[in-house]
């Protein structure tokens, strides 16, 4: 198993006949496609069923983008943004530019300064655009695309159509109509896969491949997870264990889960995880609130609250066993900074001590701890991890008797925004 899980409580006590029965039923109903929202379970077997021709076409398109552009602007929000962003950030080694094309995201916020300065920045680069929206009508990315499409047409004329790639629904939406009219290259977001479960579709794969990373390895990791985590076992399946532990902690008075990382490049894995669990579970007055911290940074900030504040938090460490690069503390002639006691230790070892010390401190402060450990930052491992989270999230939501695949609450602000902006019909 690529994800190892451990829990500060007595996990064996959670394996009750009742919970085992619940998990078995959830698994059977997902497999039979009879669970709530089952029409959106397309992601479940996607890694093993993905069409190899699609992967080849994505790879070819990525190579075309690498030839034609220095920068790929990826326009999208929510699930049409966070998957690619998470994987790219996790793969990027600090201060190294390993990408074959610089990937810049847009449409995930509404900011004139952001778009204006972005277009200025693009002036000195060769540019391609990948606009991603499953519904094809989300306001924030649509606004960004209106500006960037105009920019591309003014700058490249007819050639703009060769540089704009659209990822959207196969049959409906305003974005699809534009793509057809302008004859942009198109990729499909499958009907039965919701945005936050779409990282292994063209939504996530095209930007990741364009950057030059191996989508084959990413998918191989996801496929291994699909196979290994299909086993219905509370004893050995870490995805089921994570769901069962979360559910137990929620029922025991811990409604907030803090994901804690010790390597900053995992920050957007947390952001992706927050959308996945937050939108999947937070309904009908129920659900764990997913929050995140980056340690050591937040040990000197939110760490105070975690240690001593209102007791409603449990923590989930996401640890990485090995790092690609490291440095070792050396003996200094004069020990004026009083750090000679660290001589001979690598910073990864020091970071390990930070993790252990934090775990002990927070546990003694009454914060239960779950630890997820992955071996490294490779595409294969990340593919495994993201699938692990998705399948665990489905179990977790079903344990709460929540449909994991809708997000009715998100509409509320949209209706208000349309009214405030005088959209016809609102
Ligand atoms: O891909 P899109 O249709 O543009 O949707 C983008 C995002 O916005 C929506 O409002 C949903 O809350 C998200 O689940 C979704 O991922």
SSE diagram, text form:
Blueprint lengths: L3 E4 L9 H15 L14 H4 L2 H17 L2 E5 L6 H10 L10 E5 L5 H11 L4 E7 L5 H18 L7 E5 L5 H9 L2 E4 L13 H9 L4 H14 L9 H14 L4 E6 L5 H15 L7 E6 L8 H6 L4 E8 L26 H18 L4 E6 L4 H21 L11 H10 L6
Parallel strand pairs: 2-3, 2-4, 4-5, 5-6, 7-8, 7-9, 9-10
Antiparallel strand pairs: 1-10
Helix pairs in contact: 3-8, 4-8, 4-11, 9-14, 10-14, 11-14
This protein binds 6-O-phosphono-alpha-D-glucopyranose (G6P).
How would you describe this protein?
There is one protein chain. By secondary structure, the protein is α/β, with parallel strands linked by helices. It folds into two domains: 212 residues, Glucose-6-phosphate isomerase like protein, domain 1 (Rossmann fold); 168 residues, Glucose-6-phosphate isomerase like protein, domain 1 (Rossmann fold), CATH 3.40.50.10490. Helix content is 45%, strand content 13%. The strands form two sheets. The protein has a five-stranded mixed β-sheet, with helices on both faces. α4 runs parallel beside α8. It is globular, with a radius of gyration of 23 Å. The model has no long low-confidence stretch (mean pLDDT 97). The site of 6-O-phosphono-alpha-D-glucopyranose (G6P) has 14 residues, from loops.
List keywords for this structure.
single chain; 426 residues; alpha/beta; Rossmann fold; 2 domains; 5-stranded parallel β-sheet; 13% strand; binds 6-O-phosphono-alpha-D-glucopyranose
- Fourth CATH level, the homologous superfamily of the largest domain: Glucose-6-phosphate isomerase like protein, domain 1
CATH class (first level) name of the largest domain: Alpha Beta
CATH topology of the largest domain: Rossmann fold
Main beta sheet, described? Answer: 5 strands, mixed
Tally of strands: 10
Structural class: alpha/beta
- Name the beta content range: 5-15%
Helix content: 40-55%
Shape, per Cα inertia axes: globular
Radius of gyration: 23 Å
Which blocks of ≥5 consecutive residues have pLDDT under 50? none
CATH architecture of the largest domain: 3-Layer(aba) Sandwich
- Strand arrangement in the largest pleated sheet: 1-10-9-7-8
- SSE pattern, N- to C-terminal: EHHHEHEHEHEHEHHHEHEHEHEHH
Q: How many structurally independent domains?
A: 2
Mean pLDDT: 97
- Tally of DSSP helical segments: 15
Terminus-to-terminus distance: 51 Å
């Amino acid at each position: 198993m690529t994800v190892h899980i451990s829990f500060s409580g007595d996990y064996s006590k959670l394996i009750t006949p009742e919970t085992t029965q619940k998990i078995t039923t959830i698994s059977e109903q997902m497999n039979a496609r009879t669970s709530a929202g089952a029409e959106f379970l397309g992601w479940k077997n996607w890694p093993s069923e993905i069409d190899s021709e699609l992967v080849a076409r994505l790879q070819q398109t990525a190579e075309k983008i690498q030839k034609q552009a220095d920068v790929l602007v990826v326009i999208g929000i929510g699930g049409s943004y966070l998957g690619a962003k998470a994987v790219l950030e996790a793969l990027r080694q600090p201060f190294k530019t390993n990408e074959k094309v610089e990937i810049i995201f847009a449409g995930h916020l509404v900011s004139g300064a952001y778009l204006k300065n972005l277009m200025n920045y693009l002036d000195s680069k060769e540019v391609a655009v990948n606009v991603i929206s499953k519904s094809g009508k989300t306001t924030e990315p649509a606004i960004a695309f209106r500006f960037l499409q105009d920019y591309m047409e003014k700058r490249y004329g007819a050639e703009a159509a060769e540089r704009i790639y659209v990822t959207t629904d196969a049959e409906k939406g305003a974005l699809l109509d534009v793509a057809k009219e302008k004859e942009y290259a198109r990729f499909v977001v499958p009907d039965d896969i919701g945005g936050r479960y779409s990282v292994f579709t063209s939504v996530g794969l095209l930007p990741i491949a364009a950057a030059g990373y191996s989508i084959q390895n990413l998918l191989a990791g996801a496929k291994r997870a699909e196979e290994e985590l299909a086993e219905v076992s509370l004893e050995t399946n870490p995805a089921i264990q994570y769901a069962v532990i979360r559910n137990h902690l929620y029922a025991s008075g811990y409604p907030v889960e803090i994901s804690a990382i010790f390597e900053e490049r995992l920050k957007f894995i947390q952001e992706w995880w927050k959308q996945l669990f937050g939108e999947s579970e937070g309904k009908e007055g129920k659900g764990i609130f997913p929050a995140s911290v980056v340690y050591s940074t937040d040990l000197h900030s939110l760490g105070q609250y975690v240690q001593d504040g209102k007791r409603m938090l449990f923590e989930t460490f996401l640890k990485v066993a090995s790092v690609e690069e490291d440095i070792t503390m050396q003996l200094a002639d004069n020990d004026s900074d009083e750090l000679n006691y660290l001589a001979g230790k690598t910073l990864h070892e020091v970071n390990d001590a930070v993790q252990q010390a934090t775990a002990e401190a927070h546990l003694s402060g009454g914060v239960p701890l779950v630890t997820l450990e992955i071996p490294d930052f490779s595409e294969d491992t990340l593919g495994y991890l993201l699938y692990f989270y998705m399948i665990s999230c489905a179990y977790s939501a079903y344990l709460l008797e929540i449909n994991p695949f809708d997000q009715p609450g998100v509409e509320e602000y949209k209706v208000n925004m349309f009214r405030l902006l005088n959209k016809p019909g609102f």
